[in-house]
């Protein structure tokens, strides 16, 4: 308990002692009281400073631990995807917090050095361990792979950090609290601070990711390891040098010219190469060339945003390797009364990818607005996939943009393309009844909207999204990108994953497509083969997984969230068949 603070009366000897001897007994007693008050004042100040240092040290350890927990999630995403990375993350962190808090005394007895001196070493070697463990991701699988990886990396860091926090707080003076609270207050308080910092730091990381090399995933890990080294200096730090050297020269997940050249040396053996890469708001973005098969793709974390053939010469537009993007262009072929000519039409494209569909719309002379949330995706699409410059670009979240412009853009567009990434982790707000209704208001009375949703026919989310679309738009037709798999294949794999395209109009008219002309094909082989959707899906295909009246509203997004895990795991397996495993695990 802190010494009781008193404010003594001021006297001539208060600050400098008994400089002038007292003349009477009363003066002497008064001087003694003044000196006693001064001593007590100094004692209280020393106690306050000591307690402040204790709590500041504990808070610093908690902050480093909270930030590293989030950075660990970010490093897992390119290999396992965001949802797979988060599935067991919190449980692992809770377990580590419990073990560290309850085992601090045992660690002090067992370890030959102070626990805190090991923190910089553990933090420094995490990037190296991750790079090795990621090579086994195909063996681990997305279900347990992230947990195994964090069990050898984040778990020991959190255990040691929590144990150090417990050690530090043993010196905290809690005598002012009731005995019933004094025992639990340090633990509960530390956890509350940890959760607060964990939540806030993730928002900051998302806002700052990619601003510099040190603000990338592995860059942040090295920064945190350096912070631990400053915080817990000891002679043991010399053993962290190999870890930092490995990160600087051999860890291909650190985006520097040296490591990128090293990665390309490995990829060239298998006829692949990295064209460019960076990290941004939606994940790790990279552009890759397959020299053997002759195509280029853009990836975001553990998913593909699109690709084009490089072995075929680009004429008017590139040849897409995925037919779904050519099929979206069939929005122009929907027969509607009083149709606006292309040279006077306006289109809104939400979600860019590599820009296949908007490039075609622009090539047809349509005034096109592109709304894309990720600036790196936009820059790479222009630089490496030939996205034309004659369009309006909006680099912003589609929801906030639509809400702020819904009045000015009412009945403004002849065509709307809704093609946001939905591979296992759809941006749920973009498929709610409210958002789709906003798009309906932006569509002209004789306009057409095309929506692409990548989903699993065996799971409810696809049916819920289809119900929501048909609830907003009175007339729709639904197609899937490819031919449906056999019942035996679905039973064997447990999934039926495909791109689903929905074409809708605002009126109740039946949707029909006109026959394409030569101009519609844009001198493209892929469009000649895939422009018209072929594999129509009846509403009954979704009845087995979703109630007919079940739609998605803003306050009911949990309908899709609860299926994210299974959907994401299925998508991960699909992606591992699309590109070789070493492409995903080497970043």
How would you explain this protein's 3D organization?
This protein has 587 residues and is an alpha/beta fold. It has two domains: 54-249, no CATH class; 312-585, Rossmann fold, CATH 3.40.50.150. It contains 25 helices and 13 strands. The protein has helices spanning 25-80, 82-86, 89-102, 104-110, 119-133, 137-152, 154-169, 179-182, 185-208, 217-231, 241-249, 257-269, 323-328, 356-363, 375-384, 398-405, 433-442, 460-472, 487-493, 518-521, 525-530, 540-543, 558-561, 564-578, 581-585; strands spanning 272-280, 283-290, 295-300, 303-309, 319-320, 346-350, 367-372, 392-395, 413-418, 443-456, 475-480, 497-505, 535-537. The strands form two sheets. It has an eight-stranded mixed beta sheet with strand order 8-7-6-9-10-12-11-13, with helices on both faces. Strand 2 (283-290) and strand 3 form a beta hairpin. Helix 1 (25-80) runs antiparallel to helix 6, helix 3 packs parallel to helix 7 (154-169) and helix 5 (119-133) packs antiparallel against helix 7 (154-169). It is elongated, with a radius of gyration of 31 Å. Residues 7-18 have low confidence and may be disordered.
Write a concise synopsis of the structure shown:
With 587 residues, the chain is an alpha/beta fold.
Give the overall average pLDDT: 89
The counted number of beta strands is 13
How many distinct domains? 2
The poorly predicted ranges are 7-18
